[in-house]
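Hi P.,

Sorry for the delay on this. The queue was packed all week, but I finally got your sequence through. Input first:
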Amino acid sequence: MRRMFENDRFTMALLVACIVAGYLGFRYFYQVSGDFPFSQELLLVFIGAVATVLITALLLNRQTELELRKEGQVLLLDQKSAVYSALIEHLGAIVESGTLERDELARLRVLNHKIAMFGSAEVISRFSEVLGRLDAAVADQSMTDAERNRIMQSVAVLTYYMRADLLGRIEGEDQAAVLAAIKSNNADLEH
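Then the structure:
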């Protein structure tokens, strides 16, 4: 960011220097060119072209920076979405099987590290709650229906925070009502 700002300063300084030099040159040639009627017009066209090129370069530089930032945000959103979806599917498979095998635990650890890279603080916190319930459920190597329901209820809350992390705050949306609806949908599916 600092380098870009210095680059903008350089471009602006170059533009100002060009305008000042053009003005001084124009004044000089204006006084000298009494015998050459078109020299003033040619000089003005040249100065205008140089100023136009410098202004265009400055604007294109800024536009390119904004486009790169936007593209980076889109890639980050895609990565988050893919990791969040994979985590939900993996947790669903673990709850469905009722056990936590060694390879499933390894994959869960990898997903945990991916979430730690770019998940929001709420997502990380809620995932910790899911892990706690999952750990308690598989401690005796069998998962009861009540434990499955509690885990999936925690996953429902986790998905709410994942949704909020991906979409941000949506104007006019009642956050508490959305969370309640997600929990209600999960409870309806359990019965």
